[in-house]
Amino acid sequence: MGGLRAGLRMPEWIRARLRAWRRIRFTRRGATLIAGSLAVGFAAINTGNNLLYLLLGAMLGAMAVSGWLSERTLAKLTVERRVPSGGHAGEEIHLHYRISNGKRRLSTYALEVEEVGLPNLTWVPRIAAGETAHATGRATFLTRGVHPLRLLTLATEYPFGLFRKERDLTRPGEIVVWPRTDLPVQVPVGMGGRRPRARVALPSGATGARGEYRGLREYHPGDDRRDIHWKAAARAGTLVVREYEHDASEAMWVSLDVSTPPGPASERAADLTASLLARLMREGDLVALHAGARVVRPGTGPAQLERILDALARIDFGAPDAPPPLPPSRCVRVTAGERRAGWADVIEAHDR
User: Fold this and answer.
1) What's the whole-model pTM score?
2) Cα–Cα distance between 137 and 140 in angstroms, integer?
3) pLDDT at 116 over 50
4) Per-residue model confidence as pLDDT tens digits over 16-27
């Protein structure tokens, strides 16, 4: 029987098409008006009183006008969602919406924008005909990870609050929630009893200041503007920067143990890793990350921190571990499992 139900399951594209149609829900006021209309209609039929017929007509007319206006409110709306590159667990993440009203004459009133699957509700009081409004929603996640976005629901109870009319829009996307970087963590001594530091403060143009030249790549927010290759940017029509191969021996490598099972202790290990690397970068160190199959090569600056946080947000605990690019004796290990020898230093994470 279970196999039969699975075989008769509605295809996803049909479900999406059905959800894209308008949905109507009665509010308490609307239910009261419906019940009152039935009572007045029953009384009018039994008594033949013209005033009751007039009252019934007014009540039915109010429902008809409400249905038409709410339909026009949701018609010809386009929504663009802009999500930040990431946000930290436990902090508010802002989602920005650009809503355009394509109607020529009618404005849109009392519009609600809701992310399906998230406790996020944004209210827009008015969008004039042919104009665009901007709104901001807020969401808070307690743990790091990647949260997919699929549907936006537009809803309104305009004009009388009798019905709540809803319409779904398919808008795929994702919210990347970074681990916390504010945990107190002791900076390890490092390799061989010393703490390697990157020479990130060398004069501009000094030989070897940024390592060996590797190639060009697209510009990311936080990259050093001195590395922008203006001629290549003019040819490509977008900003590109020079990328350099830093000396891995000068970097502080931090290895996160991803083989531990998912749970509060493993999540704390991710937070400790992010907090340690963020502190090292604030103090001027060249840092690199190893987390299972994910490796972030040595670097510094805001763009490097964002690459590290993005990698930490996307790891899955319980996955097979992999050896780091350098010998373990030159790496700092962060783990929620057993403390093992062979690493330059080990930071243990415990559930609190």
Assistant:
1) 0.73
2) 10
3) yes
4) 555 556 788 888
Find out whether 138 and 120 touch, Cβ atoms under 8 Å. yes
The residues facing 289 across adjacent strands are 254, 296
**Strands 252-256 vs 240-245: parallel, antiparallel or unpaired:** unpaired
Asked if 257 and 340 count as a contact pair (C-beta separation under 8 A), the reply is no
Q: Give the pairing type, strands 240-245 and 294-299.
A: unpaired
Backbone φ and ψ of 32, nearest 5°? -65, -40
* Block residue for tokens 């403390």: 339
Measured CA to CA, the distance from residue 246 to residue 210 in angstroms comes to 7
Dump pLDDT digits (tens) for 181-193: 999 888 776 543 4
Q: Distance between alpha carbon 339 and the CA centroid of its chain, in Å?
A: 34
How far is residue 221's CA from residue 228's CA, in Å, rounded to a whole number? 12
Mean pLDDT of 38-59: 91
φ, ψ of residue 23 to 5 degrees: the values are -120, 140
Tens digits of per-residue pLDDT, 122-173?
A: 999 999 999 999 999 999 998 999 999 988 999 999 988 888 999 999 999 9
Closest by CA position to 258, among listed 331, 326, 318: 318
Q: What is the pLDDT of residue 185?
A: 87
**pLDDT for 94:** 93
Q: Is the backbone peptide bond immediately before 11 cis, with ω within 30 degrees of 0?
A: no
